[in-house]
Predict the structure.
Amino acid sequence: MAIKVSEREIVQRRKRLEEVLSAEGIAGACLFSPHNIFYFSRFAFIATERPIALAWAFGKRPVLFVPLLEREHAEEACDVEVATYPEYPDERHPMERLADLLRDLGLEGKKIGADSDGYGGGYGYRGPKLSEVLEAEVVLAKDTLERMMAVKSPEEIELLRESAKWANLAHSLLQEYTRPGLTETEIAARAAFEASAAMFRALGPNYRPTRVGLPVHVGYRGQIGPRSAVPHAITTNARIRQGDVLVTGATADVGGYWAELERTMIVGKPTEKQRHYFELMVAAQDLALAEIKPGRRCADVDRKVRDFFVQEGIGEYWRHHTGHALGIRMHEAPFLDIGDDTVIEPGMVFSVEPGIYIPGFAGFRHSDTVVVTETGAERLTLYPRDLASLIID
């Protein structure tokens, strides 16, 4: 059972990036995004005001540049050289120390591929651009990085498959514990804790989550009753009531990869109106699943779904595109969107989640994680999708 990407895979990723960027005359890389650093090193960390970077001159071993407080964490997490600086902002700014490191790597005066021209910041961070502290040409390589991450390797797909299994368990617990009179918070907390505890037991002592908190996330995020029609609602600790439409979400951290599972449930016997929109939502998702095939464009899938909304007279209840890629981030490129002409390839992984949102009444959305195969789309999230299985008695 895989619980993290192998070191061999990490080395292959760096080699692929080196090959692509070297062909453009780029001599090395400097990455600041936590997701990109994780992708090329397996180092997961809490991003704060303290800059962290992964840098390497192509053909040489990478160096992870971290504040002193992260040294032991970094050395334990990944097989690269670790260089530290005292603190931020300190008497000498960390970006100036990073420039020293890049000079030591022989990258001054060269082209450097980067995901941004300096640390992105947050938490009150202030600092110079990379191009302001080093005589070098900083070439933004975000498109190259996105293309690399879009097609998943067999190892990545297995981690997402494992994540989907734990999301399925978490959702089954959420459904089991949902009852009228209880609050969304108490239901979600119980389900997330029990699923996380089971996950720790099953995956063993070598399993490590990559984010703070429980490794399983499950709940309603405020999409309860009429507020289920707010696609990105925030938890309000609402109390479940008879007749409510509930939109759920579940995922689990396996090696830093996160599958997405969402379902629409109904408390008590569905009304005809609830049943009508539920069935339309499932039909829209079925259509999208059937349209995902290698060689087609992401835009083609979304266009089919949008046409369906118009044909069924529910265009006014459309709120968002059909889906998005995912992996180490819950939202990645490309997008199943009418404006994204990316050609779908085997190995791409998408959420498929067309939703219907009727203000003041209810929202209806299933989301499934699928991997693109040579012939179509394979669902990784296998939780029941039919209405009879999603009624809270």
